[in-house]
């Protein structure tokens, strides 16, 4: 019995969805599964570390000049006819052969203002159709499950909640300033710093974060800088926002940092700041906690699940003033930082990609009728 995995999200620099799939494949490669073989289909060579895929997991690169979503719907289906189960993050082919299982890491239909009509038009219909046609749907939180039911009309009985994990390599490494190696590589001064990691989406309030940091610098004489890491796929234009606030010498934008660099940044940060209003379930919060970074974030639904809220400094009322006060609190109160650090480490220890991979495999077997 064959499991087919759609892996177009593994091509190019790996961010949230790609890294999610990478971890699943890593653990499936190293543990016995009920499927005779697992075939991973991609439109180009995946951006994976050597040895990620091994054992009963095989890679099939079907090169195509078409955009990835077109490739998934025109070139791929004919290759899936022998698969008992087809698994994909967010989308399946519109006419999916075999039994489909789709995972969803968060939808944002409740915040249409965050995306242009064109962006919604080329994603939402595929996300919705895939969730509705799938035999089972995996949601990364109870909050995402509720959104799938409310906005996509998915039957609640077919949605399974599986929380993400955190890579075991994400551990505290010490340091209180930007490591010299990274300072040189990214042109950032080796000083204490606040850190943001994630796509520069509107719901994550990058302008507000910069306003809060500018306010902090006006009110306090601090050596701290602000480091923003993540792709700008919506054209937020972080360098322009930084320049408009006169922060060129104090705020720095890095479009992409590999995993090893992220571990060092998380570990040395005065705090990880994620001023988000909506998430499916944040990988970066768990990674920051696992590395010992205190977390500042706005209240959003998944925080109430699995004890995450108790391990972070959660602001109930979003705003630059509240955000600035929170950053100031962690500078002035080292005991508060240490308390959040301890709580965060304990929280992150409860999440495992190995467990998430095992639970996902259980859902795939359920869809296939395998005990």
Q: How does this structure look, described?
A:
By secondary structure, the chain is an alpha/beta fold. The protein contains 13 helices and 13 strands. It has helices at 16-29, 68-74, 117-121, 124-133, 142-152, 180-186, 206-219, 238-244, 259-268, 283-290, 320-332, 334-348, 353-368; strands at 2-6, 37-42, 57-61, 85-89, 99-104, 136-139, 159-161, 193-197, 225-229, 251-254, 271-274, 295-298, 313-315. The model has no long low-confidence stretch (mean pLDDT 94).
Question: How would you describe this structure in keywords?
Answer:
371 residues, alpha/beta, Rossmann fold, seven-stranded parallel beta sheet
Quick description:
This protein has 13 helices and 13 strands. With 371 residues, the chain is α/β, with parallel strands linked by helices. The longest helix is centred in the C-terminal third of the chain and has 16 residues, at 353-368.
């Amino acid at each position: 019995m064959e499991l087919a995995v759609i892996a177009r999200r593994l091509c190019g620099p790996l961010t949230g969805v790609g890294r999610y799939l990478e971890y699943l494949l890593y653990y499936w490669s190293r543990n016995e599964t009920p499927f005779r073989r697992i075939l991973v289909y991609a439109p180009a060579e995946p951006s994976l570390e050597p040895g990620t895929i091994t054992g009963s997991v095989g890679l099939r690169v079907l090169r195509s000049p078409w955009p990835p979503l077109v490739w998934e719907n025109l070139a791929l289906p004919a290759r899936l006819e022998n698969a008992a189960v087809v698994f994909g993050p967010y989308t399946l082919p519109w006419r999916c052969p075999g039994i489909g299982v789709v995972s969803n890491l968060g939808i944002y239909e409740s915040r249409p203002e965050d995306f242009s009509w064109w962006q919604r038009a080329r994603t939402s219909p595929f996300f919705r159709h895939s969730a509705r046609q799938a035999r089972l749907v995996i949601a990364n939180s109870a909050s995402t499950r509720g959104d799938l039911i409310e906005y996509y009309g998915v039957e609640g009985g077919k949605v399974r909640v599986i929380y993400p994990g955190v890579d075991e390599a994400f551990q505290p490494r010490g340091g209180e300033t930007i490591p010299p190696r990274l300072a040189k590589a990214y042109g950032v001064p080796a000083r204490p710093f606040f850190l943001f990691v994630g796509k520069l989406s509107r719901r994550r309030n990058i302008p507000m974060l910069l306003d809060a940091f500018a306010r902090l610098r006006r009110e306090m004489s601090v050596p701290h800088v602000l480091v923003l890491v993540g792709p700008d796929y919506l054209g937020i234009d972080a360098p322009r926002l930084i320049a408009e606030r006169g922060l060129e010498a104090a705020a720095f934008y890095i479009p992409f940092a590999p995993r090893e660099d992220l571990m060092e940044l998380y570990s040395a940060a005065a705090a990880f700041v994620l001023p988000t209003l909506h998430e499916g379930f944040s990988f970066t919060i768990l990674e920051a906690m696992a590395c010992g970074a205190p977390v500042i974030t706005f209240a959003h639904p998944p925080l109430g699940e699995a004890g995450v809220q108790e391990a972070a400094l959660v602001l109930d009322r979003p705003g630059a003033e509240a955000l600035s006060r929170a950053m100031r609190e962690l500078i002035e109160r080292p005991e508060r930082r240490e308390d959040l650090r301890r709580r965060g480490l304990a929280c992150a220890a409860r999440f495992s990609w190995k467990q998430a991979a095992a639970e996902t495999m259980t859902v795939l077997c359920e869809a296939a009728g395998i005990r």
